[in-house]
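FAQ: What does the model actually see?

It sees only this:
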Amino acid sequence: MSEPLPLSVLELATVGSGQSTAHALAATTRVARTADRLGFSRLWVAEHHNMPAVASTNPPVLIAHLAAVTERIRIGSGGVMLPNHAPLVVAEQFAILEALHPGRIDLGIGRAPGTDQQTAAALRRDPAALSADDFPQHLIDLLGLFGDPRVEGGLAERFRATPVAETVPQVVLLGSSDFSAQLAGHLGLPFAFAHHFGGPNVLTAVGLYRETFRPSSVLEEPFTIVAANVLAASTEAEARRLALPGQLMRLSLRLNRPRPLPSVEEALVDPERAAAEAMPSNAIVGDAAGTVEQLRRLAADTGADELMLSASTHGVEERVRSLELVAGAWGLPARAAA
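And it is asked to produce this:
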């Protein structure tokens, strides 16, 4: 019997109404330990800034913590927004993480700001740095700092991420556009598509990635990760009830009115509930069997080599239970707790 397609987890360290950042980070720690125990392949945290509902502002710091409290699962960024940082800083941070946890660190790289333009300007300090035009060169510099033999010149002429690095993190290019797909293909990197953003062009992007893929020193064949909003519960009705706070949060972001994630009780009486439920969505919500059926269809349609599950819920219990239900129905090889 063949092994099931790998499943992974994307965590935002969600802050709900009435919750603190400490509460959100403790919940993410529990999710990471659960994913490790259940046999998920990796857990990523995303870089977001100035968002009341998201506590994962600094992926390297959070990755260091999560890798230290888990045993087997790969821990990484989904992603680090490279235009916000100097490539040498990112390389040094992730070289240290890799040295601490060899073979378990992923560096997912994105080119979006992960925030609004004013916050991006505060992060980058130079208005000229708000453009992403330099992103390909910065990405190549980053690869060179990790010792990629294809990179000549640039920062790699004078620097290395560590003086004697024995292993390097796996670099994955993230995206929701044709640009990122083709860049990942040209550089021979794994590509993670943000299907959970709700965009319709997943098939076009993964197709372009495979068409433009060139084998590299890190990857001989294309490798595609597709991220999706996924929430499972004991019944479809219960799953839809628990998913409502996440729908309201996505509506608030679309309207540029970010807010903490409401509780289910608050969401049920929220005046914008109808508008949130009416938004187009490709989220996968249902009981275990229905959720897994939709995930298998997504994998077949996209040819994904791995699926990554993201869920925004007010309570951590709902996220943990969703992972347990999906892992059991999918057939992940659970690992004994230490």
